[in-house]
Design brief:
This protein is mainly alpha-helical. It is about 65% helix and about 5% strand. Strand 1 (about 5) and strand 2 form a beta hairpin. The protein is rod-shaped and about 120 Å long. About 20% of the residues are buried.
Amino acid sequence: MIEEKFPCPSCGTLVSKGDVYCRKCGVNLAEFSATMPEIPPSPPAPVPEEIYERKFSLAQRFKKLLRKPSEAMKDIALAPDYEGIFVLIVIEFVLTSVVVAITMQKFQLSGPYAETISGEVSGLLVATIFLALILFIAKWVIKSLIVMYACDGGSKWNFKIAASITGYAYIADIIVSILGIFVIWFLIPTLHLDTTNLEVAIQTLNDYKAQLNWLKLVYSSPISLFGLLWKSYLGGLGAHFGTKEKCSLSKGIAVFFALGLIGFLISFII
């Protein structure tokens, strides 16, 4: 412990608090004790902030997101990374490609215009794959920025944390996409379209579209809504831990739900 010292009232030499006489001028320090300045205690040394060490590997994070989401999102929020988001983007690209491939098998065209229409549809679906990938990345970035500001709560957290929890929350969409593949494969009927008579072909196409709308209402929309609720819960957990609990869980869920609901309504209308 460092001994407290103060200047002698007579000569200015530094003396200790317990000294009776000044070692230089010999003055009786007790006579001046009443007028001696109180030395303020030294401020406590700042406690260094504990550095969080990542607990789970990438595979463990994905596993715990399904089984113990609170533990997974806390680890993701306190040790953010872009590796998991890249994996999810690749999976989303693959699943979209599978959906397009299955959809193409559901269209069986015949007649004089079959080859032309088939080529145009194939090109359109391939373009849809890349457009979906671009939109997925764009939604992730924009949503991460909104979440960063909306859920800040004075924590001053950074974009990497917000982007990490937003990206990992998309695992709910991945599960929904997998369920969607089964819906397309088993429930969507095959379209047999004869292009010999274009008026009949158009009417057949309209009837087929009505069937798809019914399936969308009965099967796809409830599954998508379930995915939205799940994704909102994961995002809310991440925002809660990422802001060091300055953003409440309910507020985080509300922010993610509001953002996801916009996309859900757009997809339902389209």
